[in-house]
Amino acid sequence: MLRVVLSLTPRHFAESWDSGNGSSLGTIMYYRRLIVLVTTVAVLTVEDDADTDFVEGLKFVGLTPPHARALLQRWQGRGEGNPDCFRKYLRYYLVDQRVWAARRAVSVNDDQYLAELGISEPIRQAILDPEFKQIRGTRNLFQFASDTLLHNLDVIFPLQHNLQLTSSDPTTRALATTSRDARREPPLDTKLNLTSSPPPNPRDHTFLYLGLSAHPNGRSLIDSHNDLNLGRHSTFHGSDFHANPAFYLFPDREVADRHRAYAARRCPAAESWLVRFAVPDTFLASLVTERLHFSSEWKRYVWKCRSGRSYPRRHGNCERYGRAELVVGPVFTMPEGDVREVEEGVVQTRITEGNVLRVGHGVRRGEEARQYAFLGPGVWGRLEGVVRGGVHVENTPALFETVCA
């Protein structure tokens, strides 16, 4: 059986850009004897002669062959009480590997930690790209790893669909669809309007930004019903300003764009988005808000939240942050392993101004990056309601060239 070869080399990242108009070609080349990518992940049935294709699909997702085969065996032998959704099953598998890695206590660096999770070398290189070291230090490493593999799993299905549509003509050169193509189709309803240019700058609004990799299959920021789904892009437990999941936005476009670029590096087969939210100032003023600045209190609070050693709302001055609906303050950046090594007695000396993320370019270059942490599903739902009509998405097409042979 011929198989699809999905090239993830940096050469293809560079060559996929069209210098003429600045957009990605996202090109898929087809040869005369091409057959479509067969992955039993897509249909969730596994037969003996399809096992190899299942493993190949999981290698594209980012698992090493041994872990792909182990996951296949566990999926085939799953009992009652286990999820029938393969996406959830993959997530649970990664959590299990995380627990076992912690018990073995053999992960001496980030690369070895990711290898213990079962992540393949090309994906580890993308996650640990030194260009994004500061951005990587703003979140739990497991969150970036899990998001990367789940994004890549989601991307398999539209890739397979595109191959099926074009494989009848072996000489076809197909371009990946972008949001420019999507604008030709009317929106499903009027909850959100899709336009080719930003809406006018509204008065009495604050612009906040988010950078992300766009999910297909209804898991995007904007779902198939044109509803916003902010909760799908909340953090895991233990982010800067809360022990529970939170939804973060940035007032600096440049900071959000670095997050977008990092998402594109980790998930090169997916579009990446820079999203601008126009948030009414009256809504922000209605929230119970705490504002932090670089200080001993900020150091203590972000350490408590990120380290997971204590629950902030139960500890002295941190209690009021646990009652807040919105926390605004500097972005903390420190590798996860370093955060775990910091003991409470040395927090004030180990966490310095060097652990504050800085704006990389623009008029605020070198100044501290700040973030808005919206806390709790109730706040997210209210935010979704007030920003409808004030959302603008800048799309960057998929980065890599997919060669099928």
UniProtKB/TrEMBL annotation:
Residues 168-201 are annotated as: Disordered. Residues 168-179 have a biased composition (Polar residues). It comes from the Eukaryota. This is DNA repair protein RAD5. It comes from Elsinoe australis. The lineage of its organism: Eukaryota, Fungi, Dikarya, Ascomycota, Pezizomycotina.
